[in-house]
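Task 17 of the worksheet. Students: predict the tertiary structure of the chain below and write it out as structure tokens. Keep your answer in the requested format; marks are given for formatting as well as content.
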Amino acid sequence: MLTITQGFKPEYVNRIHELENACFSRAYRWNKHDLIAALEDTASNVWVGVYDNQIVGYVLVELEDSGTTGHVVSLCVDPAYRQQGFGKLLMDEVETFLQKEGVKKVRLEVQVDNPAQVLYFKLGYRVTGIKHRYYSNGTSAISMVKVFKKR
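Model answer:
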């Protein structure tokens, strides 16, 4: 069973950095310095998924627009643990938290060829545009948004 914990702990850095390297090519991943800065940023929240006593995935989210918009900056699941629903479980946990905090919508960017798009569509995210030359290697990203229904 996947256990999800919210909050940054310094001991997470090395494993999250390993996951970045395993999940993304150089053009798409964080370098360690920028990753630490993002994880320590007070506007950021991180959730880690632990399975068999090891971090197998994480989500990094920033709050924007005075806390009304969540921005999924990174979602990463160890390639050895994909297709088990861990990405969905992490996103469900994030969205539940954001809704309780009064966030109205969540946005993200995803590589144009990233199969995670399927997950995002299943979760209710919709395409809002293309960001041309978004990544450092000149490739584009798809912008997606999910607007939460009023409760």
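Marker's comment: The chain has a mean pLDDT of 93. Helices lie at 13-23, 32-40, 86-100, 116-122.
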